[in-house]
C-alpha cells in the first residue's frame, strides 16, 4: 500500500513542479527577465493562488484518498487538512517556486513518517506562582509541588 501512496505523492509533486515553474516563468516574462524576489507581495500572492489551485487538482484528491485509506479509514476528508499543512509547513511549495533545492525522496520519507506517528505527546504548562495549596508539599508519581 505504501507504494500506492508513494506513486500518488510523486505524481502530485510533478504537477506541483510543472505548475509552479510555469507560474514563475510567466512572472519572469512579465517582468522582462527580472528575477522573482520571494518576499514581494506579487510573488507571495501568486504562490498562494497557485497553491490553492494545486490543492484542488485531481492528483491532490488522489493523494488524499490513498493516504486516508492507509492512515484514517473511510472518512478520507479528515486527512485533507493535515496533508495541506504538510506541504505548506515543510515549505515545499515555497522551495519549488523559488528554485531552492529539494530532495523528493526525503520529502516523501518525511510525509510518510508524519502520518505514521501513532502517539503524540501533549504537554500543558501552567504558572503556579499565585496558586495556594493546603499542604506545603504535594507528591505525585513523577513529580512534586
Helical percentage: 55-70%
- Uncertain spans, ≥5 residues at pLDDT below 50? none
User: If you average the pLDDT, what whole number results?
Assistant: 81
* Total DSSP helices: 6
Distance between the termini: 49 Å
Radius of gyration: 22 Å
Would you report the number of β strands?
Answer: 0
Strand content: under 5%
Largest sheet: none
Secondary structural class: mainly alpha
Give the topology string: H per helix, E per strand: HHHHHH
User: What best-fitting shape do the alpha-carbon axes yield?
Assistant: elongated
Quaternary status? single chain
Tell me about this structure.
With 145 residues, this protein is mainly alpha-helical. It has helices at 2-30, 41-54, 58-71, 80-89, 92-97, 104-116. The protein is elongated and about 70 Å long. It starts with a helix and ends in a 29-residue tail after the last helix.
Summarize the structure.
The chain has 145 residues and is mostly helical. The chain has helices spanning 2-30, 41-54, 58-71, 80-89, 92-97, 104-116. The termini are far apart.
Amino acid at each position: 500500500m505504501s507504494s500506492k501512496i508513494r506513486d500518488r505523492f510523486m505524481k502530485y509533486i510533478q504537477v506541483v513542479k510543472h505548475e509552479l515553474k510555469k507560474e514563475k516563468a510567466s512572472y519572469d516574462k512579465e517582468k522582462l527577465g527580472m528575477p522573482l524576489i520571494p518576499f514581494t507581495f506579487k510573488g507571495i500572492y501568486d504562490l498562494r493562488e497557485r497553491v490553492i489551485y494545486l490543492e484542488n487538482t485531481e492528483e491532490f484528491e488522489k493523494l488524499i484518498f490513498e493516504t486516508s485509506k492507509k492512515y484514517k479509514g473511510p472518512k478520507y476528508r479528515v486527512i485533507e487538512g493535515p496533508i495541506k499543512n504538510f506541504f505548506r509547513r515543510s515549505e515545499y511549495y515555497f522551495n519549488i517556486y523559488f528554485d531552492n533545492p529539494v530532495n523528493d525522496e526525503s520529502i516523501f520519507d518525511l510525509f510518510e513518517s508524519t502520518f505514521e506517528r501513532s502517539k503524540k505527546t501533549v504537554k500543558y504548562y501552567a504558572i503556579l506562582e499565585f496558586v495556594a495549596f493546603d499542604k506545603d508539599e504535594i507528591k505525585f508519581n513523577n513529580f512534586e509541588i
